[in-house]
Design goal:
Length: about 450
């Protein structure tokens, strides 16, 4: 669980470490990090009263007639940043967004996650997650020129990408974000740094910090890092496989030593909930036009709503790395991508799992065959549905989902529909180079 730092702890640590600047961080609905910077003389006031700002300028926040917002620092998230562009040492604190009267703001993604975590707590559960974020290094932000031609787990020669990845791990550990391991991924110049299991709120904050540090360390070394889901045609895309489990105190609620899968009835119902609502969640877990260029057969990207243990063509896996060990029993959702908003992504995953537990949704049979090789008729007979194939399909599935409205609240639900329809309309009207190359001469 998160360390319990108090207001006084933060003030003391700022003085002891000679912190010159404090950044107050929060996240908009689309998952972009926002920041208010201040000097330490303003710290006590900010910790007591928060910092006011214009919410109408933030994606998915207030309309102009409701623009006054307050960023209230959460002292438990205080951390000293390893390297930032300002002169002098810098720290960061994540904030909750409040209305002027002190009530939580419905458009704050962090609040959406906290609200779902509170529901889980009422049911006796704490959610833990361990995401695996993949990303690419390119020579600059204008082209997809790779730095290496390595593959999965390849030990490439000591080149720029190897040293940058190592420096990133060092930066993450320095700020207190524990790294489990790092390695080269399937695609050329593609890498992965996996974070050690934490409670969901701590991990969502960590993912936001992780994405910034990956980019900043890359920039400092003269290269560009991107979490774009599918930056190159013909190569693997980047995912964010999310390992997750529920605990009741110190006990893993997913574990049953007497079950042939070592999976309890709670764990099975949780998986069934993920499968039941996977299509409706896609607008959150895979929110960009480009997300659906990754979700195609042939690159280990899951597109079919089924579960398995060792079968990586399934949407949900029960990993078999350490069978029979209670602490290692978990489920892995494989379709989210690293450009998702982690607060909303973890919130809808948890909401789906809890709904499966509440409704006692029955878990279908395990998919033991390669689903990619099954015919559409065979998948239909097996009851295996497909994820949406493009953003428009995700919008429709989301828009018709009362479950998603309940999970996210009216404000975020309606904003995402408006924003994503505008994105799809802009993409739909764009004439691509593929179309020009294919049609201009012959039509």
């Amino acid at each position: 669980m998160r360390a319990t730092l108090t207001r006084d702890d933060v003030i003391r640590m700022v003085e002891e470490n000679d912190i010159k600047f404090i950044r107050l961080w929060f996240t908009d609905v689309l998952g972009f990090l926002k920041s208010l910077a201040m000097t330490r003389r303003e710290l006590e006031s900010a910790l007591d009263e928060g910092m006011g700002f214009d919410g109408s300028s933030i994606e998915g926040f207030a309309r102009i007639q409701e623009s006054d917002m307050v960023a209230m620092p959460d002292p438990s998230t205080f951390a000293i940043l390893p390297s930032m562009p300002e002169n002098g040492r810098t720290a960061r604190i994540f904030c909750d967004i409040l209305q002027p009267d002190g009530t939580p703001y419905a458009g704050d993604p962090r609040y959406a996650l906290k609200r779902t975590l509170a529901k889980a707590a009422q049911m006796g559960y704490t959610m833990y997650v361990g995401p695996e974020l993949e990303f690419f290094y390119f020579k600059d932000s204008a082209r997809t020129e790779v730095l290496d031609r390595g593959g999965y787990f390849d030990l490439t020669s000591l080149d720029v990408s190897t040293s940058v990845r190592r420096d990133t791990v060092t930066a993450l550990e320095e700020i207190g974000i524990e790294v489990e391991y790092a390695h080269h991924e399937c695609g050329p110049s593609q890498h992965e740094i996996d974070l050690r299991y934490k409670d969901a709120l701590t991990m969502a904050d960590a993912v936001m910090t992780y994405r910034l540090l990956v980019k900043e360390v890359a920039d400092a070394n003269g290269i560009h890092a991107t979490f774009m889901p599918k930056p190159m045609f013909g190569e693997a895309g980047s995912g964010m496989h999310v390992h997750q489990s529920l605990f009741t105190g110190e006990r893993n609620a997913f574990f049953d030593p007497h079950d042939k899968y070592n999976m309890s009835a709670v764990g099975k119902a949780y998986i069934a909930g993920l499968l039941q609502y996977a299509r409706e969640m896609c607008l959150v877990t895979n929110q960009w036009v480009n997300s659906y260029k990754r979700l195609v057969p042939g690159y280990e990207a899951p597109i079919y709503c089924c579960w398995a243990r060792r079968n990586r063509s399934a949407l949900v896996r029960v990993p078999m790395y350490k069978p029979g060990r209670e602490q290692a029993t978990r489920v892995e959702l494989r379709n989210p991508d690293p450009a998702a908003n982690p607060y909303l992504a973890f919130a809808v995953m948890l909401a789906a799992g809890l709904k499966g537990i509440e409704k006692r949704i029955e878990l279908p049979a395990e998919a033991t065959d390669n689903i990619y090789e099954m015919s559409p008729k065979e998948r239909k007979v097996a009851g295996i549905r497909s994820l949406p194939t493009e953003l428009e399909g995700a919008i429709v599935a989301f828009e018709n989902s009362e479950f998603m409205r309940e999970a996210l609240g009216d404000h975020i639900f309606e904003y995402l529909i408006r924003n994503k329809r505008a994105e799809w309309d802009a993409y739909r009207a764009f004439v691509s180079s593929w179309e020009v190359d294919r049609y201009l001469e012959i039509l």
